[in-house]
Each structure stands twice: as C-alpha cells, then as structure tokens.
C-alpha cells in the first residue's frame, strides 16, 4: 500500500483537497477532534501520515512514505534526497530579507558588512549572502524571528512571508526576495523509478488535476 | 537595564514564580490574552523576553539578554557559549532511549547495529551511541518522534521524557537514560564577569531562593 506524508499546518487543507480530487480521502485529519497521525484512506488504496512540515521529506527520503507534500522552502533549506515531481500551485509565499522600517537599509547590499541576520532558514540565508559575496553572521533562531531586529540582536531577518501581516505588525519591511515558494509533490526516488503501488498513475492524475485548476 | 530571556512552554510558569521570589514580576506573560514578547518588570528593574526554549541560549550568547532560564537538555544539545549558573530544581525530566514494547530490545546495546534512531536531539543521541562505541544511524525529526518506531522507520528514539504518558500512549518503553534534566539559570559570560546591572546580586538571591525551597 502507498503511504503519503502530509504536512501539519498551513498546507494541510489544500493538500487533503488535492488528494481528494484524485480519489484519496484523508479528510479525517481535518476533524478538530482528530489525534491520529496515521490513517488509511476510506477506499483502502493508501495510508496517510500526518507529520511536521520539516519531517515530510525525512519520511519520504527514508522510504517510509513513497509520496509527500511539502513547501519548496523546506526542500531548499534541507536539501533532502527526494524526487521533486509537481508544483502543486498552492501555498504561495516567498523567502525574504526584512529589516526595521525605521532602519536606513533598503537593499541587502546596504546592510552593514559583518552585521547579523537572524533566521530559521540558516542554509538559505547563508547561501543568499554568499551568492552576493556579502559577509554577514547568521544567527539561528527557531521561532519569532522578528524579535531579532526588534531587540537589536540582528540588523535583518530572512524569513518566509505570505501576507506580510507579521512583518507589518512588527514594524518590519521586506528589502529583498530570495525565492518564491509553493507546495510541491515529492517522491522516494527508488519507489518512483520502480513504480511501487502504481505511483506513476497517481502522480499523473495529480499533475492533470493541478493543470485543470490553473486552466480554470 | 538587565534583560532576562524566558522560555515559552513547560518551564514558563515556574520561571516566572522564581523571579517573583526575588522581586522581578513578569507575570503578565502568563495572561492568556498576552501577545507581547517583551515586557518591563513593574519595578522597572529588568526587561523580560519571551522566546522559544531553544532560542533562550541564543539571546544570552549574543548578549541580548544577560540572564536566561532554559532546560539542561537544550544546553546539552546546542552547547552554547554561556555561563551555567544555578540548577533551579524544577522541570525534572530525563533524556531516554525508547523502543516499541513489542520489540525484543531491552537495552541500548541490544539494538541492531547500524539500526536507526529517530530524535529531535541529534547531537545528544549521536554522542550517547558514540560513547557506547555502538554504530547507529540518527534520523533527525522535528516533532512526533514516537512515529519513528510506530511506522517502522526507526528501531528506537531518543527523546525527553517527563511523566512517560506519551510513550505509554504510543506503546513505547524506555530502555536507557542518557541524563537527567532540570531548568538552569544561565548568563552571558562577559556580563557575568563584569557584573553588568548588579547581575551577581540577582544570581545570589536566586541561588538562595532555590536552596530555601529545597530545605522546605
């Protein structure tokens, strides 16, 4: 039986809807009283695994799930050994550099050299400033990154921005975009090549379903 | 003015109580409606910073907070450059190896060599098995680590155990303890040496307050 790893949080609802479109029903994960992390689709075709977004590629990389849905940001940050299959066209957001609105910085290169940049995405942040050949110190935080500039610990942050509300509420503005992100369908490379559990058929259906949504 | 970094979650309530005992009131962080991450104590002596537990040592290491309260588990995992000052004697828990109750493994050395161990504490797990000279593959997860053995992705987990309820609910049992953990008072080393903002006085008061609690 196929196993699909689904991400908790922002992308869950749309992930479940797109799988429903191709005949896999994991809507039980959306019940507010649900505490189960593993359920079997009502048609008995596949198992769903509900895990943290960052853990989706881990389950897929280790072959515990053959398919997974996860944000491109996680793939860019962790670089897991998985096959990237379909851009699912939902969960649009962007990885941005932001600073205090009251600061004088209006582009990444205007930041003070050897200044500090706080981020949960330390690899993305490091690669970006490296590509600019601009030396900064990356401060690894695990949450509330906006506190970096507010407390004065860092001049800037690198974080995922969707509506921009959190930035506005904290008096921050974006000054550069590293890349755009959306939800992606990923697969365990060997399972994909061997077409385990008729995986290719399902992937094709999902691809067509996404295309039809865009056409409308 | 002194800044104290406080950890969100399990340790927050006791952290606030112990600071109240020495005259610093950050109880506003406990109001259910509170959204502020930075408040000044009502006596105007110090500022409180409410951050994720893993971020407490980051704020202290970078000198943005002179003092912080955090679990020993975080200090063992991240090894930040901070001064360890006082064992605050609350938040007792332990870092343990656990396996499925139905598995044949009853000690760490009985695990299959080159087997998999899932953990959020990858450094602690790696060091432990290294100290046993026992080769395992560490699978880094960020949440719901108990899914590792349940899905069959890993033979064991290394995780923080307090009451043991999560393990029991998931049919897992502890087979080894890496170390015991409690909440710790930490300081920015230079601020501590220079006695910034009469920090030493506050640390001494906290030490006495902990001792008097134990005596009772």
UniProtKB/TrEMBL annotation, chains A, B:
Q: According to its UniProt record, where is this protein located?
A: Cytoplasm
* Matching InterPro entries: ATP_PRibTrfase_cat, ATP_PRibTrfase_CS, ATP_PRibTrfase_HisG, ATP_PRibTrfase_HisG_short
GO biological process annotations for this chain's record?
A: L-histidine biosynthetic process
Please give an example of a GO cellular component term from this record: cytoplasm
UniProt keyword Glycosyltransferase present: yes
- Catalysed reaction, written as an equation: 1-(5-phospho-beta-D-ribosyl)-ATP + diphosphate = 5-phospho-alpha-D-ribose 1-diphosphate + ATP
Query: In its UniProt entry, what is this protein called?
Result: ATP phosphoribosyltransferase
Q: Which gene encodes it?
A: hisG
């Amino acid at each position: 039986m196929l196993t699909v790893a689904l991400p908790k949080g922002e992308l869950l609802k749309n992930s479940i809807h797109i799988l429903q479109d191709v005949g896999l029903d994991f809507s039980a994960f959306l019940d507010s009283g649900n505490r189960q992390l593993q359920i079997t689709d009502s048609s008995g075709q596949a198992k769903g695994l509900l895990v943290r977004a960052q853990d989706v590629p881990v389950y897929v990389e280790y072959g515990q799930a053959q398919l997974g849905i996860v944000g491109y940001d996680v793939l860019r940050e962790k670089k897991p050994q998985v096959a990237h299959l379909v851009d699912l066209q939902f969960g649009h957001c962007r990885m941005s550099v932001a600073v205090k609105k009251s600061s004088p910085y209006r582009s990444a290169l205007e930041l003070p050299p050897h200044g500090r940049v706080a981020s949960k995405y330390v690899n993305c942040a490091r690669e970006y400033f490296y590509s600019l050949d601009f030396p900064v110190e990356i401060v690894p935080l695990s949450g509330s990154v906006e506190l970096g500039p507010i407390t004065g610990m860092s001049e800037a942050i690198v974080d995922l921005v969707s509506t921009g509300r959190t930035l506005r509420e904290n008096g921050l503005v974006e000054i550069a975009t590293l890349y755009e992100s959306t939800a992606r369908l990923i697969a365990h490379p060997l399972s994909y090549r061997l077409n385990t559990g008729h995986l290719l058929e399902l992937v094709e259906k999902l691809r067509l379903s996404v295309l039809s949504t865009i056409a409308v």
